[in-house]
Amino acid sequence: MKHKTFFWFILPTALAMLLFIALPIVSVVMQSLYTPHEQVLRVVENCGPFGCTQETTIDAEATQALRAEQPLGQFAGLDIYLDRGHLATTEVAEAWRTREGLGDFMGALGNLPFYRAMGFTLTYTFTVTPLLIILGFMIALGVNSLHRHLKGLVIFFSLLPMIVTPLIGSLILFWMIDSRGIIGTSLQWLFDDPDLSLKASTGLTWVTLIVYGVWHSAPFAFVVFYAGLQTLPKDMLESAMIDGASRWEQVRYVIIPHLMPLVTFVALIQLMDNFRVFEPIVGFNAAAHATSLSWIIFNDLGGETRLLSSAATTSVLTIIGVSILLSPVLVRTWRDFNTKV
Amino acid sequence: MSSSKATQQPLALKIFIYGFIALWLFLAAFPFLWTLWGSFKVELDFFSKADWTDALTGPRTEATYGAPFTGAGYEGAWLQEEFWRAVLNTSVVCFFVVTISLTFGTLGGYALSRSGYRYTFWLLIIALIFRAMPPITLVSGYLLPFFAWNLWGILPTSIIVLVAINQPFTLWMLHSFFQKIPRDLDEAAKIDGCTQFQAFRYVIIPVMWPGVITTGLFSFLLAYNDFAVTSMLLNQQNQTMVPKIASFLGTTQTEGNVMFAVASVVSATAPLFILVMFFQRQIVSGLTAGAVKG
Questions:
Q1: Looking at the 3D structure of chain B, how many domains does it have?
Q2: Confidence class of residue B161 from pLDDT cuts 50, 70 and 90?
Q3: Which residue intervals of A98-164 are DSSP H helices?
């Protein structure tokens, strides 16, 4: 295809991505380096019959003029990155100096919003991903050995947790685990503890969110692995059987190696997706016990005051996190492309 | 599989497999069925501490409305809380997001699949990086310009933003799909005197629909399920379903109108049910397209 034709074909999509993805990223980075102007204050002396008093008033006109002149605000450099709401370098250094053991230090970190969110995000990402791969693999093996007529039905119901809007899915479960809901009541009965509530403690909230994450994403792993099983050459299994491999050995030495590239694929995709965990925290109303980076951004943006600079800074930090998780995917794509050409 | 003696499963294994799959099916489907059933009850039945069977039989619903089922939750949500407006907004957003992103995506994906130059690779890599960006991180970049130019709060803004966020994925899907259509087809058309665009129009468009439908489904799901972008970029009146439901939670929990939220959740899930029912094959093939290719 000629360069010129290519240009016209690609123009609409490139323009859309340039204007609404590339430029916003630049603007987010810029915003994270600036803070809003403070109000311009003016000291006025009021002289009356009882002497003079000094009064400080807000000079609205001057504030407006300053804001119009530099709409981004004043340059703050990396100050916002280092403040208490983000990387909190001074607080971390302080906690490190006064630590009484590693646990104490981690506890101090847990009080800082960014590290608290990071703690949950990483725990969530690295527990949900392996668990959903295992569950998805087991479902795929199970469904693969079912009767032909049952498969379609099972696949239909299996897709639901993944297709349904994350916020809606988490709300549905949230109502069920309510202490008056069906799962909540069952758990109270099971553990014989009428005050048991999954929402009350941090640990249980984390478990709930992780269970939700696995429930939501396992179907994806299942579908991918199931498709992989269809491409497994039959004679490979047969020769393994003739060589006397037991069922377990067939799975371990034939099926798992065959699916390994797909496992990597699912793991890479899911690491990135789970890192941005957000909707379940809103749905489960869990912000008191578990926050994530995305949730902090949402919270900053949603308030009355709209803390744009703070949200932008967290956004940049999130983008850096995603880039780290993305790098293996890029390397893989690079390798694929070079071997293909 | 085959029914030969060697591959037959022992009974214990068979029972185990069926049991496991039944358990998974229960986990996957039960929450939806339970909420669907419960949405026709009053709150005291759906959340009943005394006896969980109340949610099935609905004694208090019967006491209040004279029948074990009531549409009060739906009436409250759709009419009193104006959920119909959100449904309308969602339909508008989904329709335009799907059509626009497919138009842009087919043109771009086709060009990427037919050009052998090095820059196509870099464009695809950039798209992959954009695909990984959580949409919420972009929102703080939108707000200032949208406020300044008075674009905030209206549907077209959200539509074009969702189209853009959708492009990277659409491009990848359609790129790999167009690569499977033999190049000889459009080469032959060009030899016969077509321009590149005519070749696309008369040769490729008639055969591209399976891939386009699959990609369109995922564009639809993205627009339908979005919460981060629409809740930040739309004003109260233009809210789509998901942010509307989220805003219910703040107000209804206190007023004791949880059933409004339950009813609207069920209303928002129903179209997805139907979608999966009719397009199961396309969804599965779309999910696996990226993986099996390598």
A1: 2
A2: very high
A3: 102-110, 113-144, 148-163
Average pLDDT of chain A, as a whole number? 87
User: Residue B273's pLDDT is what?
Assistant: 92
Q: What does the mean pLDDT of chain B come to?
A: 87
Distances in whole angstroms, Cα of residue A144 to Cα of each of A232, B19, B85, B289: 11, 14, 44, 19
Domain span at residue B69 reads 45-80
Contacts of B3 in chain A (CB under 8 A): none
Question: Mean pLDDT across the stretch B95-110?
Answer: 95
SS3 label, residue B54:
helix
Beta-bridged to residue A55, according to DSSP, are A44
Residues A99 and A62 in one domain: no
* Nearest residue of chain B to residue A231 (CA atoms): B292
Sign, CA torsion A241/A243/A245/A249: negative
Q: Which of residues 244-283 of B touch A (CB under 8 A)?
A: 245-246, 249, 258, 261-262, 265, 268-269, 272-273, 275-277, 280, 283
Rounded-to-integer distance, Cα A259 and Cα A139, Å: 14
Percent of chain B with pLDDT over 70: 94
> Residue B157 is encoded by which pair of tokens?
């803004």
Q: What is the DSSP letter of B206?
A: G
The verdict on B111 and B71 lying in the same domain is no
Confidence of residue A10 (pLDDT cuts 50, 70, 90): very high
Tell me: do B70 and B122 sit in the same domain.
no
ipTM of the complex: 0.89
HSE of A167, CA atoms in CB hemisphere, 13 A: 25
Give B259's Cβ-side CA count (13 Å radius). Answer: 23
Q: Do B103 and A21 touch (CB under 8 A)?
A: no
**A212 and A63 within one domain:** no
Give me the torsion for CA of B232, B237, B240, B242, rounded to 10°.
Answer: 70
Residue B68, φ and ψ in degrees, nearest 5 = -70, -10
CB contact under 8 A, B108 and A326: no
Residues of A in contact with B21 (CB under 8 A): 139, 142-143, 146, 154
Same domain, A107 and A239: no
The DSSP call for residue A252 is I
Strands A41-48 and A51-58: antiparallel
Q: What is the pLDDT of residue B71?
A: 86
Beta bridge partners of A51: A48
Q: Indicate if the pLDDT at residue B293 is higher than 50.
A: no
B65 and B164 together in one domain: no
Provide the greatest CA pair distance for chain B.
78
CA of residue A333 relative to chain centroid, distance: 23
Q: How does residue B255 score in pLDDT terms, banded at 50, 70 and 90? A: low
